[in-house]
Amino acid sequence: MTAHALSQLHQSQGQSLWLDNLSRALLTDEGLPRLIRDYGIRGVTSNPSIFKKAIVGSDLYSEDIAAGKRRYSDVESVYEHLVVTDIQRACDLLRPVWDQSHGEDGWVSWEESPGIAHDAEASVRAAHRLRELVGRPNVLIKVPGTVEGIEAFERLIGDGVSVNVTLLFSLDQVRRVFAAYRRGIEQLEKNGGKVAEVRAVASLFMSRVDTLVDKQLEAIGGERAEALKGRAALALAGMAYAHFREVFEDESFDRFEQEGAWPQYLLWASTGTKNPAYSDLLYVENLIAPRTINTLPDATLEAFADHGRIASLLKPRLDEDREVWAELADLGIDMDGAVRDQLLDEGLEQFQTAFDELLAAIDQA
Asked: Where's the active site on this chain (predicted)?
């Protein structure tokens, strides 16, 4: 498959490809503009780990770091001064996609500080502040799927702030997030806001789920455990997509769609395969479905363009997915409890570590 064929994915299958990367180097003519033009990239996601990789050791940020230190007294403000420039440029490059798609795509995600993941009030304040700082209509503020984060998400939708709910690892989280979005949309309407001007996505992580579950299956041992390896994440995705259809293809959501509201699309995240025994496109080819988003790291995007197949769709396999879930539970693996909690804690810790290391590097520059 060629890059040109990949660029037709949205038109042919209704799925959007977003890039899971952002850096100043990527904002050159041969970077993001080329990926938008030739690969059909329709959005961008970022996180503290991505910005750490982009900024640390790069001379493209040196002048702005020096200027930020002269202007701000705290290092986190210096960091935001650096990042907002990249976010704004990416928003501007994707603005034609945003306009043409009437807000379906063309979004750039910016994550809140991981240190406020369990503080709903701080999360709401930070989201408003970051959106105003960017000053672009096509920025999504990333809020984690903690209990407090989901509370903040609902309030932000009611305020008309577009949000990417991230670090989702379970069907339970997806259900709670979709319910919060519905309540937020209703509140926005009551507040006199325009439901057509707000957007939300739900980022469900794939490879991290299989990495942890496969390790637990390995420890359990036996033929049953072996047969379940590499199946948990796709089963989760299939059940989550079935729930998406139940919630947003229901007649009760029709009136919001008639007013221009978008359903909260599932965004497949962590789609770079970590286990070399699996296909490098395991979480790409098997997750093609209308009104979904796949955010791809650079290497996975290139692999998809090189040898991917668009023919395989997210098939209706709900009975099979539920059977996988039941088998995992029977072996003592609690997908909506212990697995979710461990992955959420690890995800927050990873982002916090990257964020702290990035701030330390900026402080020492």
From this structure: 142
